[in-house]
Amino acid sequence: MGPQGLLLRLTGVQQGGKRADDGPYFTDNEGHPMPDPAHSKTAGGLPLVSDTFLLQKQQHFNRSKNMKRMANPCGSGAIGYFETTRDMSSAHFLRGSRIQTPVFVRFSTFTFGREFPDSGRNPRGFAIKFYTSEGNYDIVDLNFPVFFCRDPIQGPDVICS
User: Fold this and answer.
1) Least confidently predicted of 9-13, 57-61, 110-114
2) Residue ranges of region Disordered (predicted)?
3) Least buried of 88, 91, 146, 147, by fewest C-beta within 10 Å?
4) CATH second-level architecture of 3-63?
């Protein structure tokens, strides 16, 4: 079979026989088949910006909102300010002493809601947002020593599962 016949079968225009892998094809927004839906393109373990499948998957996840299940169902937050006590000489809001920067801190559970016990997998996270004159500075963390999903292309699937 030539490349044109393969394209006709992949797009569904022409019905083909049973495929060797007999599994569904994952496609991007334009209908191009993904080479590997479970792994992103990497260079030395770092994901590449040229991986259009990864970018489209994350864009679709960021723009969709599932009202049945929120990723952070319960938590608490605090608004205040961060004040330096001495010169740290790195970011602008850390240079000098007695510089106050508005800050918001959020603590939350990550998967279970209030109605579930804490006996299961219980990841808890926090986020700190500094509102600096140079822009926002975010710090986000989970209480997992090793995150169970190392490839960023699997992140939306883990959250939606």
Assistant:
1) 110-114
2) 12-40
3) 146
4) Irregular (4.10)
State the Cα–Cα distance between residues 82 and 98, nearest whole angstrom: 9
Residue 16 phi, psi (nearest 5): -110, 180
Q: Cβ(82)–Cβ(101) under 8 Å?
A: yes
pTM listed for this prediction: 0.49
Distances in whole angstroms, Cα of residue 31 to Cα of each of 16, 25, 27, 126 = 17, 10, 5, 38
Whether residue 149 is predicted with pLDDT greater than 80 in this model: the reply is no
Give pLDDT tens digits for 17-74: 565 665 667 888 888 888 787 888 888 888 888 888 889 988 888 887 765 555 556 7
Amino acid identity of residue 149, one-letter, is C
Domain 75-160 is classified in which CATH homologous superfamily?
catalase hpii domain (2.40.470.10)
SS3 call for 58? helix
